Amino acid sequence: MQIFDTDSNGWQVPPGLLSSSHRARHGLSRRAFVGGAAAAAGVSLGGGLLWPAAGLAETHSTPAPRPTTATTTINGVDFHFTSFGPGVDPSSITDFKGLVGVADVRGHGIARHPDGRVEKLLFDTDMRFMKGAYVGRDGAVHRGTFGFV
Amino acid sequence: MHDFDPGIHPYPGGLFWTVPLGSHSQGDGGVRVDLAEGKARMRAEGLHVRDFFNIPNALFRFQKPVSVRATISFDIRWLGPATARSAVTSPPGSSGRLFTSPVTMTWRARNARGFSFKSNPSGTTSFFGQLGHVRNGIFAR
After folding, report:
1. What is the pLDDT of residues A51-71, one digit of tens each?
2. A88/B2 touch (CB, cutoff 8 Å), yes or no
3. A8 CA to chain B: closest CA distance, Å?
4. What's the pLDDT score for residue A5?
5. pLDDT in tens, B36-77
6. Does the N-terminal peptide bond of residue B20 adopt cis geometry, omega within 30 degrees of 0?
7. Predicted-complex ipTM score
8. Which of B18, B93, B120 sits opposite A109 (nearest CB)?
9. What 3-state class would DSSP assign to B94?
10. A105 and B CB contact within 8 Å
11. What DSSP designation does B45 have?
12. Residue A78 buriedness (CB in 10 A; 0-12 / 13-18 / 19+)
């Protein structure tokens, strides 16, 4: 889920991360960014990016599934992510059989900032679910429901 | 800007923006589906995610802090009818059947810094809604 400031040109994007032509063509919806940046091989996302030493580890009681084997490469990094569309399996997990759903919804709402400011902002979502049987990292078959958020 | 997602675990080659729903919602995992009618509903309340502030930072983690704690709640409805039925043809190894269905949603979010957002139910546009069933990996046929 992403929230944007609005301006006269539509979706606003952070400066310096993408080429102006990319911004003008795609804005920065989640789907446009991930798909568009991958398609436009060689588009610079800026130099001097700082990488954290470790990911944000979290634990869940549900046995973890395995990520999809499909990858999307952005700026030389492979992410286990697929876009969606007619005929495209939208699952973000592999070794899965079950029901799936995709919701690409856009709209607006009211934001309240820590300093008390209130403003109308646009949003863009790429929400999905996967509900069914899957093989977890433990090698066993489980039933579960997962959200791509 | 704000970008709410569960992160990538492990980073960067792990599970991408995916979180279990069962422990955060009702016994049905927060998802009910009626494929015959082309309808579904996906709900969650107080789901723990992170606010990465923007998508480039969510992918490449160059801001400090990278993210802050956040919660989101949402109610998504696929309204039917089912149209544009298609067979799954990609990625290789996946199979199944999909169809499109108009979708609407309401949602709200709050991060640990005190920022909050609540969507306007009347202002949403369904760009793409899809439902179906798929098989992949060892279940592919």
Report:
1. 222 233 334 567 899 999 999
2. no
3. 16
4. 60
5. 999 999 999 999 999 999 999 999 999 999 999 999 999 999
6. no
7. 0.96
8. B120
9. coil
10. yes
11. E
12. exposed
Encoded amino acid at A96, one letter: F
Give the ranges where chain A is alpha helix by DSSP (H).
20-26, 30-39
Q: Residue B97: pLDDT above 90?
A: yes
Smallest Cβ distance to A81: which of B16, B28, B135?
B16
| B82 has a chain A CB within 8 A of its CB | no
Here the contacts of A36-45 (C-beta below 8 Å, separation 24 or greater) are A37/A74, A37/A75, A38/A72, A38/A73, A38/A74, A41/A73, A43/A18, A43/A19, A43/A75, A44/A18, A44/A19, A44/A75, A45/A17, A45/A18, A45/A74, A45/A75, A45/B56, A45/B60
The domain locations on chain B are: 4-139
Select from B111, B84, B25, B11 the least CA-distant residue to A57. Answer: B11
* pLDDT confidence of residue A54: 28
